[in-house]
Specification:
Blueprint: H1 7-18, E1 23-32, E2 37-40, E3 43-47, E4 50-53, E5 58-65, E6 72-78, H2 88-95, E7 100-109, H3 119-134
């Protein structure tokens, strides 16, 4: 069976549009020492080293926790390459049948130590929570400012009020 000539270009266009490109986007997070728990935008995603697939570009918060080390929280700006920006993304992600990979890496060196919440900082949080608890639907009017922490208080050891 022979197709009429006006349908041939339409058929070719339909085939091209249906073969859209699969872009594999991954963020690989490593740490020293290995074995740190990783949270990406507040959700636990694994233990280092970990490879996390992502769909959208933008700023993400990465937090690492490891026993015996200070918590490390940082923002990562996953900037889109030119091929993923409008109008080029319409062509590179839907029309061109080329498989591409966008691999990003983040390496974090954790600092030995323990995260310690001091009594003044806990009192400040509890005071602010009380104000929020008693606020109406319009929210708090006069929320107390967080208490500054003096450098001497960061050492810990003295739990007296």
């Amino acid at each position: 069976m022979r197709l009429p000539s006006p349908l041939l270009p339409l058929l070719a266009l339909a085939v091209l549009l249906s073969t859209g490109c699969a872009i594999e986007r991954t963020l690989r997070i490593t740490s020293v020492p290995e074995g740190a728990t990783v949270r990406l935008d507040g959700q636990e995603v694994g233990v280092t080293p970990v490879v996390i697939p992502f769909e959208y570009y933008g700023v993400r918060r990465v937090t690492l926790y490891h026993e015996g080390y200070l918590t490390n929280s940082t923002t990562v700006n996953l900037k889109a390459p030119w091929t993923a920006r409008f109008p080029w993304d319409l062509v590179t992600e839907t029309v061109l049948p080329i498989r591409r990979r966008d691999r990003r890496e983040l390496h974090v060196v954790l600092t030995p130590g323990e995260d310690v919440a001091t009594i003044p900082s806990l009192r400040s949080v509890i005071g602010r929570a009380g104000v929020l608890r008693h606020a109406g639907p319009e929210g708090p009017r006069d929320l107390p400012a967080p208490e500054p922490i003096e450098p001497a208080e960061l050492q810990g050891g003295d739990d007296t009020p």
